[in-house]
Amino acid sequence: MLLILFASLIFVIIFIILIDKLKNKNFYKLMNQFHSYPTYPLIGNLNMLYGSLNDILENFEKIMIPNDRVFFWLGPYPVLLLKKYDDIATVLTQASHRDMLGFGEEWLGTGIVTAKYDEWKVSRRALQPAFSTEMLSSYVSIFEKNSSALVDRLKPAADSGKIIDVWGDVMKCNVDSIVEITLGVPMQGIEQKGKEFSDALIEASKSVAKQAITPWLQPRIIYNAYLRLTGKIKFIHQFHALPTQILQDKLKEYKNGENSSEHVDSSKVIIDRLIKASFSESSFTETRIRNEVTHVIFAAIETTGLNLCFSMVMLAIHQDIQQKVYQEIEELFKDNDTLTADHLFNGLKYMEQCIKETSRIFAHSTVGSRRTHKECILKDNTIIPANTMVAPLFFLANKDPDLYKNPKKWDPEHFSEEAVKNRPKNSFMSFGYGPRSCIGTRYAMLSIKTEMLYILREYHLSTNIKEFTKEHLYADLFVRSSIGYPIKFTRRKDLNDNQNF
Q1: How many whole angstroms from its chain centre is CA 336?
Q2: Angular region, 219: left φ>0, alpha ψ -120 to 50, beta rest
Q3: What span, in angstroms and rounded, lies between the C-alpha atoms of 393 and 396?
Q4: How big, in percent rounded to 5, are the helix, strand and coil portions of the chain?
Q5: Cβ partners under 8 Å of residue 290, min gap 6
Q6: Distance (Å, rounded) from C-alpha 378 to C-alpha 89?
Q7: Would you say 372 and 388 are in contact if contact means Cβ atoms under 8 Å apart?
Q8: How far apart are CA 217 and CA 212, in angstroms?
Q9: How many CA within 13 A on the CB side of residue 361?
């Protein structure tokens, strides 16, 4: 009896392998064109990524040594991994379909980040006006208000002289700003929902990354069961609760003819724009509107929050660079103490170099996803067939020694005017490239600049760490610090004039 069961199991495994080879025969041909590793049934090459989230970046780096292109099996999914700028730029220009293989569907649904190309065009058309120069300029007052509140929340830490992890305070600032801009309501009065939403954001990134690298979690039916058995399903409910509540309240307002927000001009509120778009776009259902809002919030909070936290620590480590940024700020306000949108768009260039260098070293997006909708021809005439899943490894592309003099060193001079001129155009891809580049690039820069400006005018930063090592970093959908973001805040007016900062 046991022999029959064993033989049956072997037969089933062989049958699955044969079906897989027939289903993916075109991709197996690609293995002769690109470097590949031995695969195993069902898990593919995922054994090479095995480990904790702390190991992902290092494992990917090892997989790509010494190759620029690797054909990889992410469980049952064939994926072409790319790490060189010119390969990635070609694919991002020619391939407009984003395919996340269903990972994160439970959290994000269909929206501007995950949608197929035709659906994405509808999303982009509806959201683009919210990120125009005029609209971004109107958000500056919101950035200022919440940056000022952030400075006030840091005063107890400055009074105590203790080193604190600044992540929680920065997250609150960014949540307050983006919720007011997207949903049209200030966080006062809904702090608990805001806290739950912030917690759910972090869990979403960890959970989606875990699903992608864990073979047994990839089938959605199993992943859903896992979420329920572990109790993590509550985070999905928290993730959707706030935007769903606001959306329903807004829809009631529109139904009753009350189409303006109590706190913010409704023409500047993203959810109002989406509701108005739904009048002429049938695909903008209530669920789709909620998804679009959560996509914008999810992307904005994580990228701006992580960049600011990493930037502050790096400025605390590099005191000379911090002083240059501070002097630039003081120079900006020597004749007029009023912050304008023009200051943020066109001024503070050295601060901007620091922000870009932080996003280069601590990648906003570790790994991208595209699916070719037609043949894609690389610069050396290598052809990537249609319907191929491609994963650009942005965190490696941004450390290419052919592009950056000291690729692993945090150095704002990598973005000096001269250095940028000497690199290929748009070789810096922390915010993507091509038609599906990040819609919120300028939003992120304005938000980070405002927060950094307010903090550095009030406080001098120091820290007890000398650098972020590999052991300090881990990755889910973004690169994070496992030791937090330790900062000591000292009021500038309390600094000893004899100290050389």
Answers
A1: 35
A2: beta
A3: 6
A4: 60, 10, 30
A5: 109, 240, 243, 244, 247
A6: 9
A7: yes
A8: 8
A9: 27
